[in-house]
Amino acid sequence: MEIFNSLPPNLVQYLIIPLLIMTARICDVTIGTIRIILVSRGERVLASLMGFIEVLIWIVVVSNIMTRLGGWVNYVAYAAGFAMGNYIGITIENRLAMGMVVLRIITSKPADELIEQLKQEYHGVTSIAARGVSGEVRLVLAVIKRKDIPYFLKIVNNYNPKAYVSIEDVRAISKTHTPPGAGGSQSFFNRFKFSLKRK
After folding, report:
1. Which of these, 9, 15, 20, 118, has the minimum number of CB atoms within 10 Å of its CB?
2. Is 45 a domain residue?
3. 199 lies in a domain?
């Protein structure tokens, strides 16, 4: 922090230090948020890597800045960095669209055309005859990549806008049948590059 000795004290106290605190906390919490999400999805290697970077930032940057934590401006900067770090971390994870989800579609209308369309796009579709509150329904299940959710929802809405759709995260799937491009062969970094290309 000796570099700040040549700067006006008020500038350092009320602007530079709060900005450093907020920036360091944003980086730390953003990586921590992504790490927690990766842990919940069973991404052990990537979660460990994120944990290493998170702790390194804390030891090298945040711990040094925290020695100057004092005054309401720094407290607000710390809290703002924590809040923004959570928001940015979740936003990044949503943009990367990591992992798989199970798409459940319940429709009281005939679902043959919808099922055929889904099979053309993705071969792992399961259809079950069921009974709901209003009578006979059709339950359609498919495990898809998270990044494909908007596309599949558009297909469902085209055939039956009133269909009930639920989506649930999938932690692990059998190797017997997986969607194209699914599984461990597609790395986090490949998904990241793919996400950048889509922008």
Report:
1. 9
2. yes
3. no
Do 162 and 113 belong to one domain?
Answer: yes
Considering the domain architecture, whether residues 38 and 78 belong to the same structural domain is answered as: yes
Burial readout 126-156 (b: 16 or more C-beta within 10 A, e: otherwise) = ebeeeeeeeeebbbbebbbbbbbeeebeeeb
Contact 131, 137 (CB under 8 A): yes
Residue 133, pLDDT > 90, answer no
Tell me which residue range forms the domain holding 153: 100-170
Q: Which residues of 11-20 are buried (b: 16+ CB within 10 A; e: fewer)?
A: ebbeeebbeb
CATH of the domain at 163: 3.30.70.120
Residue 11 backbone dihedrals phi, psi, to 5 degrees = -65, -40
Q: Provide the pLDDT for residue 175.
A: 60
Q: Within this chain, do residues 66 and 22 fall inside the same structural domain, yes or no? A: yes
For the segment 64-101, what is each residue's pLDDT rounded down to a tens digit?
666 666 677 878 888 898 899 999 988 887 777 667 78
Which whole-number Å values give the CA distances from 34 to 8, 38, 42, 89, 191, in the listed order? 38, 6, 12, 6, 14
